[in-house]
Fold these 2 entries.
Entry 1:
Amino acid sequence: MLEIKDLHVNYGRAGILNGLNLKLERGETLAIVGESGAGKTTLGLSIMCLVEGRVSGSIQFQGKELLTLPKQEMQAIRWNRVAMVFQNVNNVLNPVHNILNQVAEPIIEHRLSSKNEAREKAGELLERFGLPRSRFSAYPHQLSGGEQQRVLLAMSLANDPELLILDEPMSSLDVTTREELGNLLQQMDGDCARLVITHDLDTASRLSQKLAVLYGGRIIESGPTREVLRYPRHPYTRALIRAYPNMTTVKDLQGIKGRMTRPVSGCAFHPRCTQAISICRDKVPQLIRDNERAVACHRGGIITLLSTVNLSKSFGSLKAVDSVNLNIASGETLALVGQSGSGKTTLAKIIMGLHTPTDGSIYLEGSKITNRGKEFYKRVQMIFQNPGESLSHRLTVLESVMEPLEIQGTGTKEQRRDKAIQTIGEVELPRTEDFLNTYPHHLSGGELQRVTIARALVMDPDLLIADEPTSFLDASTGAKILKLLLNLQEHRGLSILHITHDIATARKVSDRIAVMLDGRIIEEGPSNEIVASPKQAYTKRLLGSASALRPT
Amino acid sequence: MSTRRNLATYGIAFLIILGLNFLLPRLMPGDPLTAIYGDEALIAMTPELKASLVERFALDQPLWQQFGAYISSLFRGDLGYSYYYNAPVIDVIMGSLPWTLLIIGTSLVLATLLGIVLGIESGWRRGSRTDRSLLTGLMCLNGFPDFFMGLLLLIIFGIWLGVSPLSGAMTPYSGLSGMALVWDVLKHMALPVAALTLAQLAGGYLLTRNTMISVLKAPFMLTARAKGLSQRSLKYRHAGRNSMLPVITMTGIRLGRVVTGALFVELVFAYPGIGYMTYQALLSRDYPLIQGIFLVVAVSVLIANFSADLLYPRLDPRVSYAY
Amino acid sequence: MHIDVKKEIRQSGIGRAGVIILVLVVLIALLAPLISPYDPLQQSTDSLLAPSTSHWLGTNHVGQDIWSQLLYGAGTSLLVGFGVGIISLLLSIIFGVSAALIGGVYDQIVMRIVDAFIIVPMAIVAILVAAYIKPDIPVLILLLSAFSWQGGARVIRAQALSLKEMGHISASRVFGASGLYIARRHILPDLGPILLVEFIYGVRRAVFMEAGLAFLGIGDPMLVSWGVMMRDAMRFSYLDVWQWWLLPAGVMLSLTIVGLTFVSHAAETVLDPRLRGAEVA
């Protein structure tokens, strides 16, 4: 019913929409999600042909090209076939006319019924949206924010449009009103297509079946709402979900590095993307469809960094690791949860090459790993439980952190030193001469662990395996280390394989959880789903016995 | 910008008027009777008349008693006696008031309507040729004082083109009636009304135009456009309805200015209204008449302002009654 | 809120035109004693002459040179205009700012009085008073000022009120600043643009009133004023003399007022930022 192709809207020199593509069918509700300034309202206004600035491209509505339509025809389409519920700001309704008249006005103007019939219908609509007869002659300033929103909604339906555009329909509403409105909208006419424009993921998930994510004036991901929110494919979508406080996700909030700037060459997100490669700077990625989902990313979406296929390791008759199939995506934290003896550490060591697997293979970004050379260790690093033991007591802090660089032979001594110092700063340790020359036995547990992290990060690895990184630390120090890891992930796009026995910790730090028992992965999935609805008995026991502050 | 004035304001204004009226002559040096009635009048008065006047207005009493006498005479409807016209002031005023009301009323209505419409059209097309010419044109028009405007019109239409009568409200001694009378009156008031209208036009126009410009940027205008409403609806029902409010608010104050204008215009056209009376009174130093006119006019303006204040909430629902 | 009044006026075509007109009139007023060929008040027997080389605009009914009168008239109008403008502005500032800063009962009383004066038509009162007092220029200026400052006071008070609420004023208060200091240092400078606009309004009103009162015959008969010229000329409107007697005076008066209107229009955009931009060429 609505098809937008390559829509460009420029205002002055700034491009607001840069080649937007969209499709909407009859009866569908599509949510356009984006942060402020992404161009969402501009999109809505361009469909109504109300936008100022230069517009190019094509907007086809029921086969008619709207952008070239003569004024008269467009005027006839407005409200009759395409209507808009504006964002509820002050003065969005005319202050000198009462609400009944304003709702009836489009009916009368477009000559759809007589004046009396129009008012009848307007009254019905207002009542349907919860405004009683007694308030029909009220003026906008006499209404509360929520009531004004209802009027806007009622008004939009006055001429039974085929397409309804809703711009932040829930923004000024309290909780109960949101629920009511959500229900009302769902009960509405099934044939009417709806475009919901919002920054709020809750609104999007409540009201829509399909979701499209807008960034830098383009759609960068789309698909069924549930699917996109559960398994986002574009790095931006994932980051957006991670940044959004909600009752579903459990991981701590993370931001997106950098900020949205305009204009940007190539992929609009690449300055902030943690898996960007050189082509991302040069070419704009196209929105490529795959069944119901579409992603605009040169790398096809979030890539899988590491995967193990049927990985097994036996020590004699003991199967420590039994046919493990695991995937770790770029920039995500996978928590491997299991009690001691479950095989998790063995698995980690296999990945690091400290054990040879008896069966199966490991792939790093698609290429099979046979030998692990310097290249491998540049990209995959590990930190251990006991920081005191993993640092040589004969090396100072700086020397320890510089060690990997020396082994790899990267750069000059100066460069290595600078890089090491920079990384030491990244893990929030002081960069003073005094500190850099300190020996491990003078450091606290937390400081030691930070040094090991710095040492692991100094080569800018893609994957960090953290084996029970906080078990030797007290609670507060441990919390800070976990936070540090989250921040590092935010800034560097670090993937983390977090091995722990404690599902409560896993819950707070991971995007996905894999539960390991007796060498096998018995359950795996998004963290919030594992925690909220575990399927395996063992998982349930794990959850039941996990740390809780039983207040009652 | 709606001004909510309360009764106290009107009370004070009334006191100011009364006060001025009362105090001015009495503060003048010399004999109060002379000050009130003027030299010429006094010459014509008999000693008995003088004595009775002194008694009636308590002119030999302390000031506050005089004020009491003054107030009580007002309540009796006694505004004094005009020596020039040889009639009670109140009669003289009532005789000429209707003519003034005629031209003031007509010009006020015309200027308001025209000013609002032109302001809306101009604001709608802001920056265009029409707007710029209207703006410049009306501002220049604004610069012409009423009396000059009147004189120009008189010269152009009365003397040069000879299409308009040169003075008066009716052709004297013509004995017309019915439609002929109406036509005669209209012919005579055309130029005065034109002069007054033109003089006031710019004020309403500018105010409406400015308001229109800001209103057009309001969010509800976008909503209205999205509803696919016609240009006319957008211009008048939505933008216009909001833009005309300031002009209506100002009606009270504008009335004050019209009255001033009428004074000059009547003078120029020898139109027998209050203004012309004032001029004659000034010439002949008929102080009671001057005072009477001042009182009537000032109080009328007050009443008009008050009525406008009462009417305004009807138009702007955001404002509630202050009384 | 950084607005540059002078820039706004300069940028607007209308503003520029207004400034040019005003400068012209001011020059005429200042140079009148130097460039006028005759003493404007000197009567002669050559009355009602048509324009000639010795009398550029002819003479009036008592033989005075019209051209000289025209030149001197500028001075009268501007003198009264600016005089009233300044005094009126001062009163507006004093009452407006004090009402805003002091507030409370004082504010209520002052505002009631201001509103009351606004309702009463200034011209009518001026006429009434002038009928008794027969003012010369200084008295006229005082009289007109007394009824002209109220509108400005209201506007200034409103502006001062909103300024008062701004952060930096409260900060000064916290440092212990007195009301006078705050008025001087913080409020007055920010009021700048409004003061200019109100001043121009005041001048405009006064020029109009002076001419009007002169036209009515109230006022100093010894004064050379465009209003007086028009009044005298009116009596002879059936003759041709209006072309060089009435018109020049009326045109000069209108021109002056128009000039003021133009300048104030350009300056108004300073007050209401929404009026800026996309303005007349």
Entry 2:
Amino acid sequence: MRGLGIFALILAAAALIVGMNSFFIVNQTEQALVLQVGKAQAAYNAPGQNQAGLKIKTPFIQNVIKYDRRNIGLDIPNIEVLASNQEQLIVDAFVRYQISDPLAFYQRLQTQRVAENQLSQFTNTAIRNALANKLPEEIISGQRATLMDEIRENLSTSISGRGIDIIDVRIRRADLPADVSERVFRRMEAARNQEAELIRANGDKQAQAVRAKADRDRTVILAEANQKSEEIRGEGDAKRNEIYASAYGRDPEFFRFQRALIACETSLKKGNTQIVIGPDNLGLCDEFIDAARKNSK
Amino acid sequence: MPWDDKTKGSGPWGGGGGDNGGGDGNSPWKRPSGGGSGGGDLEDQMRRMQERFRQRGNGGGGGRRRGGGSGPNFGPLGILVLAGIALIAWLMTGVVVVDEGSRAAVFRFGQWQTNFTPGLHFHLPAPIETHVVMPSEKQQETQIGNNSNEALMLTGDENIVDVRFRVFWFYDPSNPENFILNVDGGSELLKASAESVMREVVGKSKLDDVITTGRSTISEQVKIQLQALMNDYRAGIQVQNVEIQEAAAPAQVRQAFIDVVNAGQDAEKAIQEANKYANDIIPRAEGQAQQVLQNAEAYREQVIANATGEAARFNSILDEYRKAPQVTRERMYLETMERVLGNTDKMVLDSGSGAVPYLPINPSRSSQ
């Protein structure tokens, strides 16, 4: 009875170990390769298939190697690229890849670490080759998408046969090295300084124009006022002459006489005139009025 | 596939031993039943436990005596109770409470089955079925540009711009499980992709657009391209929006950029001062013009008035003169001479006296 119990226990333990060794679980995110004493027997849940779940294998003589099935990311930082104009660029890229053929992957690379090592080198080369004959502006702006496609094609070709599928290669950054960046900063600064100067100069120009126009307006306003003023004065003079003419025209001879008297009087005003005369000439103003006197007779 | 057949039927565990026995040859479940472990074992225990409870119910206290007779005291009963507790604890691993805003992806032996919606759910206990809770409706936020390496980007016109932005995203509502099933490091993938796309878009833009008016266009483009990329990767990510927090000149040259703004203000100020000058002098000039005009008009009025007055005077004298011309002439002449000679300094010299007239120049003036 007791011996039977022990035997049952041993049997159960043995069954458990065998059972544990007969099953394996393939997660949705994994793929598995079954090797029977070194020879590949089966692959489960490779990309494109939906075979995750509980699997059986022959205990002890079959072993299972699992790989990631997902879209895996790999960063490839600090690739130094010399563009076609000898300008250096620092490129950071990342690769998205997937293990598409677990058997080929196992045969060629065995582990993901080895794979990523190789992938890094190949990507590095592919990026350098693709960018080496391009100008920096093409890398930075224009053809970025095309270039990334080209890099992906090249990388796919060079990595082929290793059970790896390149999903995408993307340039994450393409930056200038520090000293070149410094040059760019100085150039930007210079450009902005120029712009600032231009803005200030334009401001001064406009201000000057406003001032000049104001000065011109002032001059014109005054000149026009003077013109108008002269016209008005002339109008007044004309009117005066007209008035005089109409009055004096009634008797020009008498006007000359009367006007001569007035002229004589105003030109010999008190205080500023000294007269030296002989007794014969006491009729001082004779000369002024001689003609008038004769004409009146 | 054998496994699918099982799940569509009564389930590997619900059927118990009978199901195992009737299963097809490929079924993995054939082995556990044959090996005497797993389901068969459990079934056995359950049956024995039920038996034990029934005995206790029937015999009351007698059950204990009978139990004691068949083995060590309380041993089997205690083991059964413990086993029962363990069973319940085990079954409890299949209870899932999903919060609102989350989904639980359910896996059977690692194979994705379905997503549980919010609420109480059951699945087969671990390790047969497991679940992973995904915060599928929670808004996630990824910040890019915290350090200058990330933030400084080259623009299409070969300038450098400082761009900091955030991506708001959540799990794709139609296939949230893609996020955990299809891609490795989903958040990091989103960040790297967002950075790559942003740099590509900024690389096609001009600096002035990036730092001024082009922001919304850029964030819209980044959103569209990033979403396309996520769809390509089947990453199970839905990009909600891309928010550019800062797009400015880098710190190294910011002073020069500020100076441009200042220059604008300086220019504005210069123009305003000129306007002030204009506003000052033109009204004054207009005032001066008014004065000139008024003076002119005053002159006109004055000369007309004078002329009119003189003409009136002449007319009245003329009227008088015509009445007695000769007398009036003489009188006017004499009156004028009287006024003129009466008011001036005079010196009378006799031309026949022989005296030499020696005249000091301006004696009266020099004495003054």
